[in-house]
Amino acid sequence: MKLSIVVPVYNVAEYLPKCVDSLLAQELADCEILLVDDGSTDGKSGALCDGYAAAHPEVILVLH
């Protein structure tokens, strides 16, 4: 069974790297991280999500 970790993202560019880096550091087998960008207006959160997904495509999925 795959563990899905859902992270809601809305104007959290300041906190997102600490959150995602912490999740990536976990030693969980067979898990995925879903970053759900719900229309952020800060101009940074969505781009950060896309950057993490590009760097870790096997683990991170972004939904805009």
Describe this entry's structure for a reader.
- It is a single chain.
- Helices cover 33% and strands 28% of the residues.
- The chain has a three-stranded parallel sheet, with helices on one face.
- It is globular and about 35 Å long.
- With 64 residues, it is α/β, with parallel strands linked by helices.
- It is built from two helices and three strands.
- The model has no long low-confidence stretch (mean pLDDT 94).
- It has one domain (3-63).
- The chain starts with a strand and ends with a strand.
- The longest helix is centred in the last third of the chain and has 11 residues, at 45-55.
- The protein has helices spanning 16-25, 45-55; strands at 3-9, 31-37, 60-63.
The low-confidence parts are none
Number of domains: 1
Number of helices: 2
Silhouette: globular
Based on helices, strands and strand pairing, what is the structural class? alpha/beta
Helix-strand pattern, N to C? EHEHE
Sheet bearing the most strands, described?
3 strands, parallel
- What percentage of the residues does DSSP assign to strands (E)? 25-35%
| Strand order within the widest beta sheet | 1-2-3
| Rg over CA atoms | 11 Å
Q: Overall mean pLDDT score?
A: 94
Q: Roughly how many Å apart are the termini?
A: 25 Å
Helix content: 25-40%
Number of strands: 3
